[in-house]
Design brief:
Blueprint lengths: L1 E8 L2 E7 L8 H16 L5 E6 L10 H6 L4 H19 L4 E5 L2 E3 L1 H7 L3 E5 L3 E3 L11 H4 L5 H10 L2 E3 H7 L4 E3 L4 H13 L3 H13 L5 H17 L2 H7 L8
Parallel strand pairs: 2-3, 3-4, 4-6, 5-7, 6-9
Antiparallel strand pairs: 1-2, 7-8
Helix pairs in contact: 1-3, 3-4, 3-10
Length: 249
C-alpha cells in the first residue's frame, strides 16, 4: 500500500498509487504522490513518467473518512494542500506525464489526469466530479481540459461521468484499450516519448506549459476557496450526510 516506482524501460518511470479499497488518497498519499512525480522529473535519466494505480479504479479522490474523523478543519486543509501539490507536480513535471486510467477516475483523479500530458484509458474507465454530492467543489479546472465547456458544466452540476470512449471522441484520451492491455499501451506511448532527446523533451514540456491558455495552479486554488467556504458554513457536512440531496439555498 502506498506509492511505488519502477523503471520498466529506458527513460521511463512508472509511479503507481495503491490505497485499497478504492484509491481514495489520504493526505499523506497526495504528498507522497507529489514527491514521487517531482523526483522523477528531476532525474536526468527520466524522459517520461507513467502515472498509474493498482486495483479496480484509478482514483476515487480524497479520503472522506479521514476528513470526517477530524473534529476541526485540519484534515480538510491537509487534503486541499495535498491535492494542490499533487496536481501541480504532474503539471510541472519536467518531462511528459502519461496517465494510465482504469475503472473510476473521480474527483482528485480528474485533477491528476487533467494535468497530465496524455491519457491512455481502459475501456471500463469513467471520469467525473461527484463533488456536489460530497459537499465539496473543485477540479472543474481540470475537467475543462478534458471536455468542452458546456459538457464540463453539465457533468459538474449533475455529478455524472463520461466514459473513456466519449473522452476519446473529444480528443483528450489518446487511446482506449481493454483493461488487460492498459499497462502495455501506456508504456508503449511513454517509451515512444522517451526516445526523444532528454534536453529537448524537457524544453518542449516547458514551452507547452508556457503557452497554455489556462493558469491551472491559480484557477484550482480559486476553486479550493469555495470548498473551504462550504466546510466552514456547514454546507459540506449537511450535503454529505444527505448523500448530495440538498435543500433550497
Amino acid at each position: 500500500m502506498g506509492v511505488s516506482t519502477a523503471n520498466p524501460a529506458d527513460g521511463v518511470r512508472v509511479i503507481t498509487a495503491d490505497y485499497p479499497p478504492v484509491n481514495a488518497l489520504p493526505v499523506r498519499g497526495w504528498h507522497a504522490l507529489a514527491d514521487a512525480v517531482r523526483s522523477a522529473g528531476r532525474d536526468p535519466g527520466i524522459r517520461c513518467v507513467v502515472l498509474a494505480a493498482a486495483g479496480r479504479g484509478f482514483n476515487a479522490g480524497v479520503d472522506l473518512k479521514e476528513i470526517r474523523r477530524d473534529p476541526g478543519q485540519g484534515a480538510l486543509l491537509g487534503a486541499n494542500r495535498g491535492c494542490f501539490e499533487a496536481f501541480a507536480a504532474v503539471y510541472e513535471c519536467e518531462v511528459p506525464v502519461v496517465a494510465a486510467v482504469q475503472g473510476f477516475c473521480l474527483g482528485g483523479g480528474v485533477g491528476l489526469v487533467g494535468n497530465a500530458d496524455a491519457i491512455v484509458a481502459a475501456d471500463d474507465a469513467v471520469f467525473g466530479l461527484p463533488e456536489l454530492d460530497r459537499g465539496a467543489l473543485g477540479a472543474g479546472t481540470h475537467l475543462a481540459r478534458l471536455v468542452p465547456q458546456h459538457l464540463m458544466r453539465a457533468l459538474y452540476y449533475t455529478s455524472r461521468t463520461a466514459t473513456a470512449a466519449e473522452l476519446h471522441r473529444h480528443g483528450s484520451v489518446w487511446r482506449v484499450v481493454p483493461p488487460g492491455e492498459l499497462a502495455d499501451a501506456a508504456l508503449e506511448l511513454a517509451t515512444e516519448i522517451a526516445r526523444k532527446d532528454g534536453t529537448l523533451i524537457r524544453l518542449a514540456k516547458a514551452a507547452l506549459n508556457g503557452i497554455d491558455p489556462a493558469d491551472v495552479r491559480r484557477d484550482y486554488r480559486y476553486e479550493q476557496g469555495f470548498t473551504f467556504e462550504a466546510a466552514l458554513d456547514g454546507t459540506a457536512a449537511r450535503v454529505r450526510d444527505t448523500f448530495g440531496k440538498g435543500t433550497p439555498a
